[in-house]
């Protein structure tokens, strides 16, 4: 998944500061929720902000996802990575929120 290098802070800061938050400063845990619309569009909701999810560039190599369990010293193959997702801010949603706050 490719994300913007910074995200709106209001999604993560209860005080509502307007400082962009670098991905390296995001708290651990749940990032957001994926919303699937009847039209087939897919969006990511992070706090009050929506991000568009679209297909990324095709991959030219084989890649698999695996997880290592330190408790059992075992490695589990979860499957192939068949594509990439690109996540970009939903500009219409951002502009409508800005206009409604005026």
Give a topology summary.
Elements: E1 6-7, E2 21-22, E3 33-36, E4 42-46, E5 49-55, E6 64-69, E7 74-80, E8 85-89, H1 91-100
Task: Walk me through what this model shows.
With 102 residues, this protein is mostly beta strands. It has one domain. 10% of the residues lie in helices and 37% in strands. A hairpin with a 4-residue loop joins strand 6 and strand 7. The chain is globular and about 55 Å long. The mean pLDDT is 82.
Shape: globular
Share of helix, binned? under 10%
Number of domains: 1
Structural class by secondary-structure content: mainly beta
The low-confidence parts are none
The count of β-strands is 8
- Following the backbone from N to C, one meets helices and strands in this order, namely EEEEEEEEH
Average pLDDT metric:
82
Oligomer: single chain
Separation of termini? Answer: 34 Å
Total of helices: 1
Query: What proportion of the residues form beta strands (DSSP E)?
Result: 35-45%
**Order of strands across the widest beta sheet?**
3-4-5-8
* Largest sheet report: 4 strands, antiparallel
Radius of gyration: 17 Å
């Amino acid at each position: 998944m490719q994300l913007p290098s910074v995200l709106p802070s209001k999604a993560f800061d209860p005080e509502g500061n307007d400082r962009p938050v670098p991905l390296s400063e995001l708290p651990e845990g749940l990032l957001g929720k994926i919303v699937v619309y009847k039209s087939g569009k897919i969006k990511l909701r992070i706090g009050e902000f929506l991000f568009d999810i679209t297909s990324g560039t095709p991959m030219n190599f084989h890649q698999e996802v695996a997880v290592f369990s330190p408790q059992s010293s075992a490695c589990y193959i979860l499957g192939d990575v068949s594509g990439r997702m690109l996540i970009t801010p939903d500009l219409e949603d951002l502009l409508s929120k800005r206009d409604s706050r005026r």
